[in-house]
Every structure is written in structure tokens, then in C-alpha cells.
Amino acid sequence: MVRDELSVLSAFLAVAEERSFTRAAKRLGVSTSAISHAMRGLEERFGVRLLARTTRSVAPTPAGEQLIARLRPALGDIRGAVDLITGLRDRPAGRVRLVVSPIAATTVLAPKLGQFARAYPDVVLDVTTDESRVDLVAAGFDAGIHFGEFIERDMITFRVSKDHRPAIVGSPRYFESHEKPVHPRDLTSHRCINFRHGSAGVYRWELDKGKQSLTVAVNGPLIVDDVEIMVRAALDGVGLAFMSEDRAAPHFASGELVRVLEDWCPPFPGFFLYYPRQRQLPAALAALIETLRL
Amino acid sequence: MVRDELSVLSAFLAVAEERSFTRAAKRLGVSTSAISHAMRGLEERFGVRLLARTTRSVAPTPAGEQLIARLRPALGDIRGAVDLITGLRDRPAGRVRLVVSPIAATTVLAPKLGQFARAYPDVVLDVTTDESRVDLVAAGFDAGIHFGEFIERDMITFRVSKDHRPAIVGSPRYFESHEKPVHPRDLTSHRCINFRHGSAGVYRWELDKGKQSLTVAVNGPLIVDDVEIMVRAALDGVGLAFMSEDRAAPHFASGELVRVLEDWCPPFPGFFLYYPRQRQLPAALAALIETLRL
DNA sequence: ACCATTTGTGAATAGTACTCACAAACCCTT
DNA sequence: AAGGGTTTGTGAGTACTATTCACAAATGGT
Q1: What is the pTM of this model?
Q2: Which end of chain A is more exposed for a tag (fewer CB within 10 A), N or C?
Q3: Which B residues, 1 through 30, put their C-beta within 8 Å of a C-beta on chain A?
């Protein structure tokens, strides 16, 4: 593919308009010798003299003027076409299909949806909440939002929340009849509210302290698949629950829930928006990322 | 000067038309990965997806189609403009201003004028005969024809005649009453027809033999500035004349003129067409050079 | 004739288009 | 569901050229 002359032709127009290599060079942000080389190369390739010049004056030849007459409108059209296309980048449109962790949907996405809809009226967000680790491409999604630790390595990721911290909580009423656990192994003797993700197994509580890392399959009188039900049960004293510190925070403040094993619950990477590598980012998704990213 | 995308935009059109990277690559004479890189680079620079593709199908996106609609005519116009300009190279036109030694005008140029005019009907030859050493640029000439030895070093030269040889001639009638000179110094005792170039002084006869070089300011009853008058005078026995061997040759054959001091008149470089260095050669002048050059 | 400024040029360097050698993706066939 | 043929995608290396640098040459005003 022979390198074409669009930039050289543009330079030629600039020289002809300015009637000066020096002023054209300044306009284009290159050196005068770059212009000189380019004009010479152009004339050699065409085999026609396009500019008559001395060190005191520059003017297009008759052949040069014929070229100018045709080039100017054509280059203007191309520039217009390119500007239109790049302008689309600033007015995103179309559908974005997202799969979002339910907690992320309420804590990360929901608060920003109004702002986003107003800013980008032509974009349609198609949101599916799903806690499981979805194969984006297979399931036809453009992007997802989940905890960083659950995202495949080859995805492009953007942080959309600060680090999260889990909490093991119980109501004061629960602790009236049960001693507070001081070590994760004590949990096996406690009544714990289990959580199940769709058809997957129950959620194991992962606890870390320093270099120690324990995974506990707790037992209890309740297994739920809805976070709100879990929260309600904990408040009612049904048992201990494992949830986001953010979700429990209001109840800590009111004294309705009490936290235990806090030193075994360090923070971990929060939510990230992710999409498959090796894809030109659609403008609408880029806009969403800009809106959500920290 | 950022390299523009004319070649890349042309490639994009080719891909969109062929609906295939592979076929477009074949059409453009490059590898498929060159096309792949180019399309990716284009989309990254514009920040917009232009082509939707899998390994089985390629199609322009809506944005791509908008770009195509504007690019196609514009690129066609540019190609037309370039074709027109390069087409001028094969159909030279315009005026060529020549300053030509009168002898060269008749012996070199005149015989070829008809052929040239027929081959290049759009070229106008503006011929000025002048024996003096004209400053081409100052006097507004594009080129000149003169003896090689009179041409400035920095000119571009093309030989347009074979070597020349001068001759000192006299009529048999003249020699009836004058002994033939056997040495250049004898010339001072002869009646010689002087030649004057315009307002310059009379022409000195320059004679060489081996390493000897003599310049003789001859005397005589006649000073002319026209070669034909000089020839006529010599034929009439007015005196000796110094002229081109070629000009005198017909009269040698007929016996009307006799040559003397032949060994003092060696050949020297003939006529050359010349023009100033560092100039893009106009197509019309290039055509003339091709016609005249040996 | 001199000077300031512009264009012109050869050589070196920086930047990139393109190729190579694959990998990844896709869809048809079995 | 697996395999195969063909197309697109990609990283690294190479070939090519745009551009700069360091001048030289040219021009025209004083």
C-alpha cells in the first residue's frame, strides 16, 4: 500500500495559501525543511512543477492552480467526514448490555443512572442483575460489574467502587443467648444465615487475618438467595450473617446489629466494571465507564 | 505533520466494498495483517468502530457507512485531480523561451522544429537568436543552445550536435592574387573578413596546434555581423573568412571555397542545450531536450 | 557589496507501515 | 461435540520514509 499524499497535499495547499514555506511550516507545526522536502518529493512523484519559488516569493504554477482547484473541495469533504465520525464519539448512542452484581446494581449503578440518562439520552442501558460469574461474550453482554477478585484476568477493568469490607453481624438479642465468637472456628457452633447464589452451592465465608486464610462452611437454620431477606433475618436475631460492611453500616449506627470477628474481615477490592479485551470500545460504553469510574 | 489517512481511508473503502480483509489485501497488494493493523489504527484514532467483523463476515457499522458515503466521492475527486496533473506530464504545454546561437538555430534547431511542433502541438517555442553569452535567468530564458565551451559550469547541459570544427577559407580567385598562409602569423598580411557580435568587439580567430594556441586579431576590408554576408563575401574573393566547417562544406565540394591552415583548426565541443541547475524541469522543455539531444 | 531572511539539500534520526509467524475466532462438516 | 479449514487479530522485527539538523545557496533590499 503506497503511502499516499494526503498530508503532503494538505501541506501543498498550505504553502500555496501562505505563499511561503516558512509560514506554512509554522501553520503545520513542522520545520521549513520538512516542507521543502515534501514539496520536492510531491513534484518529483507527479513529474510536474507545482510551485514557482525563489527565496523571496512562492506562487503556484498553472498546473499547481489546477490541482488546488480540485484538491481544496475534496480535502474539505474528507475533513468534514472525519469530523462527523469523530463527533459521533461525543454523542454516544445505542444499547449497552450489562450484567451486574445485585449489590453493585444498587450501590454503584443505581445512584448514577439518572445523571447518565440525562447526559446521554441516546444510550439504552440493558441491565441484568446476576451474582454468578457470567461469560460476557457467550451470554451476549457488552460489560459487567462485579468484585475485582471475580473478574477473569483477560478482561479490561475499571474500578467503580472503593474497597469493600465484609462484616459478620448479629443482633444484640441473638447475643443474649449466644457468646460472641472470638475465632472463626467458633462459627461452627453458631447459628448462621446461609446465602445461595442461584443454582450454585451455598456461599462459604472467607476469613483472613495476616497470613491466615480460612474458609468456613457455616451451618444454620436459614438459607436465602436474597440479601434483603438475609439482613431482615439477622435483625430479627435468627443468626449471624456475612454481608457488606456498607450494607450493615446503618444498623451498626442504630445499635440494631453488632459486629464480631472484625479482625478476620479485612477489606478487599471492590467493584469493577469489566469488558472483553480486543474490542474497539463502543462510544456508549466509554461514556458509561467515564460516568461510573472512581 | 501527522501522517494522514488517505491510504488507510482508501483501504477502508476497499475492505467495505469487498466485505473481506483478505480480498481487500489482495486488491491493494499488501498482507492481510497490514489491513488488520490499518483498520485497527484507524478505529483507534477516530475512537469509533467502523467495521463489524468476525472471521466469517465483515460489514461497515452505521458510523462506517456514514464515513463511506462522504469518502467515496472525495477520494474520487482527489484521484481525478492527481491523474489530471500527472497526465500533463505526458502532454506538455506552455511556452519555452530559448536563446540560441544563430548557427545552432539553423543547424541544430531548424531541422527539428517541424517534428517537434507536430509531436507537441501545445508547446510554443519562443526562439531568440543571439551569439553573445546571455545570462539565462536575468534575461528571462528557460534554456539556451550554444557551444559547450561558452556555457557556465553550473548549467545542466545536453549535447545537441557533434563536435564542431572551424575552417579558414578563401575563394580560388582570392588565392590567384594572394599566397596561401602557412602559419597563423601570415594572416596579419592577409585581407580577412571580420565578424562582430552585436555591440561586442570583432571576433578574434583562435587557432590551436598541438599545445600551441594563438589568438589572432585579423585585419581586413570588411566587418560584418551576419554569417551569410560573410560567406557571400568569401565566395566573392573579398578575403579570408573564419567559419564553421559545416557551413563551408558545400562550397568545398563545389570548389568555390578553399581551406587553409587546416592543421591549426582542430575540432572542439559542439552545441549544447543548457538550462539552470536546481529547477524542476518543465515538461515542455524536457520534451524539447528529448527531441534535440544526440 | 553586504546582510538578513528564505528556500534547498545531504545525512542522520525518529517514527511508522508492513511483514512474519504465529494465535484466536468462526462456522461448517462429520 | 469435536475437528478442520479459513479468516481476522496481534506482537515483534524490519524496511522504509518523514522529519530534523546543520548547514549551503539564493534572493532582493539597503
Answers
A1: 0.42
A2: C
A3: 1-7, 9-11, 28-30
User: In angstroms, how far is CA A282 from the centroid of its own chain?
Assistant: 11
β-bridge partners, B99: B128, B144
Both A259 and A232 in a single domain? Answer: yes
Say if A1 falls within a structural domain.
no
Residue of A nearest to B86 (CA): A46
What is the residue range of B65's domain? 6-88
For residue B240, list its beta bridge partners.
Answer: B192
Nearest CA to A33 out of B279, B154, B1 is that of: B1
Confidence at B258, pLDDT banded by 50, 70, 90 = very high
How many Å apart are CA A208 and CA A33, to the nearest integer?
Answer: 66
Within 8 A of A95 by CB-CB distance, chain B residues are none
pLDDT at A12: 92
Whether residue B128 is contained in a domain is answered as yes
pLDDT tens, position by position, A27-65: 888 889 999 999 998 888 887 888 988 888 888 888 888
pLDDT in tens, A140-161: 677 888 877 777 666 677 788 8
Tell me the shortest Cα–Cα distance from A101 to chain B, in angstroms: 28
Looking at residue A210, its amino acid is: G
